Amino acid sequence: MIFSGNKEKATGKTTAEKFSSRVLYVVATITAVIFGCFYMIGYDIPSDDDPQFKSPLLTDAVIILAILLIVTALAAMAFAIVREVKCRDRSTANANNIPSRRIAAITAAVTVACMSVSFVAGSAHPMFINGTQYTTTFWLKAADMFIITAILLIAIAIITVITQRIRYNKGK
User: Fold this and answer.
1) What are the CA-CA distances from residue 111 to residues 13, 37, 115, 162 (Å)?
2) Please, which residues have CB within 8 angstroms of residue 30's CB and are 6 or more apart in sequence?
3) Which of 22, 27, 74, 94 is spaced 20 to 30 A from 44 at the CA atom?
4) What is the pLDDT of residues 108-123, one digit of tens each?
5) Residues 6 or more apart in contact with residue 69 via CB below 8 angstroms
6) What is the CA radius of gyration of the chain?
């Protein structure tokens, strides 16, 4: 048998890449099953309050899944931040010639700046959703903040990847 360089076979431990791939597949499968059931089982049940609106049977399952995913993501984020702060070597800001400390600081600063600016710029106009008017200024602005920030950060990430790819190709 030819050695493929895979440390997993030699040590019997799963690599971080394999572990994250398995977690992704499990989460994607659970999400697909829950949303499939949500749309296929009892989706056309009229609401008790207003028969014009639908009250799907498995709405609680979707909400519980969303809450679990958010809590898990926040816990993983907190764990990663604590681990990074404890394990980081203070003497060097570069890891494998990558300015990791500067990248982390810029990412945190841009995220906080985007959230602050988008909260201030967010709309506070009342909204009608399913016949109910929502007028709480804080929550209207908070919803706009998350939507605008997500769009901006995704756009910045795409532009950064394209720019770095172009710079890398020019360097070759």
Assistant:
1) 35, 36, 6, 20
2) 65
3) 27
4) 888 899 899 999 999 9
5) 27
6) 23
